[in-house]
Write a structure and sequence with these properties.
alpha+beta, six-stranded antiparallel beta sheet, 1 helix, elongated
Amino acid sequence: MNVSPRTRRTTRTRTARTARTARTARTARTVVALLTLAALTACGDQSAEDDAAAGAAPPPTTSFTENGVTVTLSVSDWHAPKGTLTAVFTPEKKGFHLYSTELPPTGVEGVGRPTAMDVTGVLKADGKLTAAADVRSISVPGVDAPMPVYPDGPVTTTLPVRADGNGAATVLLGYASCSAKEGCTIPVADRPVHLRLTDDGPTFAAP
């Protein structure tokens, strides 16, 4: 059967169109598959991050109450051999304040005691003790110099620390709380809190 040139051209055109359509469909399917794979991978990565965050252990914490103040001690940002010791000093009664970390060890003219935290054993201080509170000066009857104190209520202090290795360490805490109306509590000095450092990090001994 003879086929005219025009018919042959029409057939070739239809065949080319069909081939282009098939290639376009395959390309679209490939793009969709790649986008789906990327989305699944991103979701998997996010899920892994969420699982890791959910499984992160809380920082080791301990607390005690003595002479009118509750002290909560924790170790945070531990990346061996460094971390941060945080101590929150909370007077049990309203209207009581704590003294500045800059107060001399025996106070001013024997009055007051500094808010203090130090470490011994395998832990060493890796910086200065700082408090997240503004210092204000007050006048105390019988004391000529002004007394540097923090506002009434809890005070958070932090101390960068560094470990020399695994083993035992002791945190030494000191403070005194006072009230303009009720006077002062008995000062606390070098109150020990024991902890141990292992390859898994620091843990506090049972109070």
